[in-house]
Structures are given as structure tokens and as C-alpha cells.
Write a structure and sequence with these properties.
Protein name: NAD kinase
GO molecular function, one term: NAD+ kinase activity
GO biological process, one term: NADP+ biosynthetic process
Enzyme class: transferase
Strand content: 25-35%
Number of domains: 2
Radius of gyration: 22 Å
Pfam families: NAD_kinase, NAD_kinase_C
Strand order of the largest sheet: 4-3-2-5-6-7
CATH superfamily of the largest domain: Probable inorganic polyphosphate/atp-NAD kinase, domain 2
Helix content: 10-25%
CATH architecture of the largest domain: Sandwich
Distance between the termini: 40 Å
């Protein structure tokens, strides 16, 4: 984790991205914009959201990578879906994302709705750190020709497009075939995505500091169909076998591409990471417990357990 870089106040700019379909997000955007502009920070909003937000004194930007270019921060008001949408803008610009959760789990968000005013104050005071999260780049080929390129923060998933038929694929790791699977799909995920689709498909939870890629078959009819954790330097490929039903590629549940029989999906570590702003140095274990509501009743902890021993935990 690296501290945020100081920026001259008179040149500071923040892009605000909101889920304007939620009245609460619009109200939150008003508060954020008012407090930031009062502090002398230039605020940008996206053209498609400006009318719903309806705040004067903001810079209205077309929705694209240029919207975040030169911005100190992208503040996201919504759930994980809104943050993933904002990542499309922030990643090319290298701008950190700061999510305020107005949704349900909000695993990628850093702050909750009740902390909004304090969160804005932390932004004004530049009291936050920035960490980098591994992304994945995806290339789709057919007969050696590139037919599509995209990327993902959470996962790239090859799925069947016809519910009544299984998808037939063969997985490859670093140029060597691994196994054929008759399945509903295959998830290729980052550590960040390990708590998203890969988790639902039975994959392991991977701490964000671990650099790795996950390969998780979905409902595979095969003896060997366990989730795999591979090197971040690996090239993972999933080939849709000829004669199999039509498939579809989904990246972060947002970007999609039809995959004809014979298509090959190649997944490797992304050339650019996604940068996330952090207000709290909360251990990932605590985030898991909070977000998933995990039971920890009975936990004593090492220090407490030692203190309760007759000799205070001392030996000898």
C-alpha cells in the first residue's frame, strides 16, 4: 500500500460517479459535490448522470477514459456494479477509485453510507492510501485471428449460451492442455474476484495481497474439476470445442462477447492494475467477517488467551 501523492489544492479534481437510479445515490452525490466544491476542489460528473444529479458548478464529461484523466480520485456512490463501471474510466487514467457502498454487500467499497460526510472530509484532507489490485487482460481468437479484446477486475467467464445444453471446453495452462470439461462454464478470476462469481462457483477466497489467477469450472461433469490457483505469470486459455453449443464471454458481468464454436479465450495478468483508495487499514480477515456476517463467537485471540492463563502465558 502506498500513500496518496500530494496534489496542489488549486488543481485538484475529483470525478463523481453515481448510481442515479437510486434516489439515495443522487442525494449522496449532492452532499459530496457541495462539500468538495466548498473546499475548492473541481468536481466532474458524467454526461449521462448530470441531468439526474442536477448540481450546478460541475464539469460535465463524456463517459469515457478522458473523464478520469488528470483526476486525483474517482468517488463512486453505489454498489460493486457501479464501482466496476467506474473502473472502466479510472483504469486507463490510473486514477484511484473510492467506493461508498449504497448497495448490499459492497465488497469493493471502502466506506458505508453513514460515513459519507467523514469520507468526503478525508478526501479533502488527502487522508487516504492507495493500493493496486491485479487485473486480467482477455484476448479472444478464432482460427488464429483476434476477434475481441477486453479486461476484467473480478473475472472473465466463459459460459454456455443455451440453457438446455452443456458447454464442451478444453482448458490450457501455459501452452499445455489440462482437461476437457462438459460444464456450465469456466471462471478465470483475480484475487479481488475470488469473493465474487468464483466464490459462488465454489472457488477459494484469496487474500488481495496474493498474486495469482483462479480457474474455477462451473458444474463440470468430470472427475478432475477442482478450482485451480495458478501463477500470475501464467497464460490461461479456454477453448470452445467445435460442435459445442454457442458460448458467451462475460467480463465483470458487464462486457460481453459471443463465442462461436472453436473460439479460444486467452487470459493473462493485466498490463495495468486497478488502483483503490483506502481510508482504513482494515485487515482483509475483518472485511470478510463483516461483509459475509461470519460467526466468530468464542474467539479469544492469542493475547487474551495468554492473559487468562494462570501464569499470564509465561513459561520457564
Amino acid at each position: 500500500m502506498t500513500p496518496s501523492s500530494p496534489t496542489a489544492r488549486e488543481h485538484r479534481t475529483v470525478l463523481v460517479v453515481a448510481h442515479t437510479g437510486r434516489p439515495e445515490a443522487v442525494r449522496s452525490a449532492h452532499l459530496v459535490i457541495e462539500r468538495l466544491t466548498a473546499a475548492g476542489i473541481t468536481v466532474r460528473v458524467l454526461k449521462g448522470e448530470a441531468e439526474d444529479i442536477g448540481c450546478a458548478g460541475v464539469d460535465v464529461m463524456p463517459s469515457g477514459p478522458a473523464a478520469a484523466e488528470g483526476a486525483e480520485l474517482v468517488m463512486v456512490l453505489g454498489g460493486d456494479g457501479t464501482l466496476l463501471r467506474a473502473a472502466d474510466l479510472a483504469r486507463p487514467a490510473g486514477a484511484p477509485l473510492l467506493g461508498v457502498n449504497l448497495g448490499h454487500v459492497g465488497f469493493l467499497a471502502e466506506a458505508e453510507r453513514e460515513d459519507l460526510a467523514a469520507t468526503v472530509d478525508r478526501v479533502v484532507d488527502q487522508c487516504y492510501d492507495v493500493e493496486e489490485r491485479m487485473s486480467i487482460d482477455v484476448v479472444v481468437r478464432r482460427n488464429g485471428e483476434v476477434i475481441g479484446t477486453t479486461w476484467a477486475l473480478n473475472e472473465a467467464t466463459v459460459e454456455k449460451a443455451e440453457r438446455e445444453r452443456m458447454l464442451e471446453v478444453v482448458a490450457e495452462i501455459d501452452g499445455r492442455p489440462l482437461s476437457n470439461w462438459g460444464c456450465d462454464g469456466v471462471v478465470c478470476a483475480t484475487p479481488t474476484g475470488s469473493t465474487a462469481y468464483a466464490f459462488s462457483a465454489g472457488g477459494p477466497v484469496v487474500w488481495p495481497e496474493v498474486e495469482a489467477m483462479l480457474v474455477v469450472p462451473i458444474s463440470a461433469h468430470a472427475l478432475f474439476a477442482r478450482p485451480l490457483v495458478v501463477s500470475p505469470a501464467s497464460l490461461v486459455a479456454v477453448e470452445v470445442l467445435p460442435g459445442t453449443p454457442r458460448a458467451v464471454l462475460w467480463c465483470d458481468g458487464r462486457r460481453t462477447l459471443d463465442l462461436p464454436p472453436g473460439a479460444r479465450v486467452e487470459v493473462r495478468r493485466g498490463a495495468a492494475p486497478v488502483r483503490l483508495a483506502r481510508l482504513h487499514l482494515t485487515p482483509f480477515t475483518d472485511r470478510l467477517v463483516t461483509k459475509f456476517g461470519l460467526p466468530v463467537t468464542g474467539w479469544r485471540g492469542r493475547a487474551r488467551a495468554q492473559a487468562e492463563e494462570p501464569d499470564g502465558g509465561r513459561r520457564g
